[in-house]
Amino acid sequence: xxxxxxxxxxxxGDRRIEALFAENDKRAREFSVEALGLLFDYSxxxxxxxxxxxxLALAQDxxxxxxxxxxxxxxxxxxxxxxxxxxxxxxxxxxxxxTVDGQDVMPQVLETLERMEAQARALRADDVTxxxxxxxxxxxxxxxxxxxxxxxxxxxxRCHFVSNVDGADIADTLRLCDPERTVFIVASKTFTTIETMxxxxxxxxxxxxxxxxxxxxxxALSSNAQKAGEFGIPExxxxxxxxxxxxxxxMWGPIGLSLMVAIGPEAFRAFLRGGQMMDTHFRSAALxxxxxxxxxxxxxxxNQGLGYATRAVLPYDNRxxxxxxxxxxxxxESNGKGVSMDGADLAVQSGPVVWGEPxxxxxHAFYQLIHQxxxxxxxxxxxxxxxxxxxxRHHHDLLVANCLAxxxxxxxxxxxxxxxxxxAGQFExxxxxxxxxxxxxxxxxxxxxxxxQTLDPETLGKIIALYEHRVFVEGVIxxxxxxxxxxxxxxxxxxxxxxxxxxxxxxxxxxxxxxAQLLEFLHRYRR
Length: 527
What we know:
48% of the residues lie in helices and 11% in strands. By secondary structure, it is an alpha/beta fold. Strands 1-2-13-12-10-11 form a 6-stranded mixed sheet, sandwiched between helices. Strands 6-5-7-8-9 form a 5-stranded parallel sheet, sandwiched between helices. It has a two-stranded antiparallel ribbon with strand order 3-4. Helix 11 crosses helix 12 and helix 17 crosses helix 18. The longest helix has 22 residues, at 457-478. The model has no long low-confidence stretch (mean pLDDT 96).
């Protein structure tokens, strides 16, 4: 089935994207989709009608519609772990029953949401100035990203996020907090995650050192109430979630408690409702008009079709500064697999490397490579029509102009003749030619743009759900399980074995020469 994409890649050769606009004055409208107040424009890519049809056929042949329905209805589509994949149930505010093994999970989901709201209201009404979320991976990246994205809506305690086991992370955070007025949220499904529990114990020791009673200072977001209880957190302050919620998909439930505390239960429900709206669109819209499907198909075309190994996520919205890091985990932990569902080697490359920074900062950092480097990097621009600072409208106008200019420049480029005109009169002869060549932009580099009105809670919910479903669609087409993450296990196992060697409790043995040398240096230079 991948041969069709190879055929189309050979067919288009070095065809210019600009030529597609010249051939079809309706291209922008025909190669974009608008839904739920969002516009996804993928017209500045090499896709034409034949390629899009081939990609849609690829999705149909992969059984996308059936797999989509299986996910929403609670089938165990996480086949290597025998689990359902139902983060969508966490935002199913006014939908029907969702069953797992014959049982409707929605009553428990809604009860947990109401408990979260009661806890959030209590913290917001109490004399609490700071809430510190201690987690890592999916227990940190989602709420940390969303809290920053929705900072204009913060009217509760300040929220801090500690994730790194590097002591600098928690030490720097604690310096900002008053122990008498700080509450810690410990986010770990198993309540055994080494980084999280190390930081939690440090927070506990900090409170004890300051003479503060820890009894009311900790909340657990965990499915292991027993372990939380052993830590000293009573059951009424433990918020659990089921194994059908993966870590990187979990901020819609208890993992989002810190966000709820910051913006309030009503705004958090708006965030959930935005996600639910995108779920409804994804589940009901025809594939050729379906925003998550088209976003995924563009990604498949660029990565598996044209061999572009990376994609840059470039939000021209400074409060989305953590979105590229969030999407790194969402996409690379989900679709960074080497085998298909049946355990056979993948026939094509797996998911791409995802990276990025907000504009306009990135323009002064890595856009040089994007414009003139030898590798093509598909770019995904994001932009709000309106910012949150009406008194600084001129800032936003400049931001918009830069975003639109970058996508246009990537497509158009600048040929040698135009470059010569730029330096004519400054140089002549061979030096003119040399200088002109340095000013050539190859162009013909693809980009997409997602534009929305304003980054409010509902809109953020739509955007995150959009990217979640994109991951699902790409995973179905690649025939991989997007919902396990065995790739993180080996490093954990080796770190556990290395621990006693690092501390000197056991001698270094059984290690390769490089690791042994590094440990020897460490021991020599440790105070």
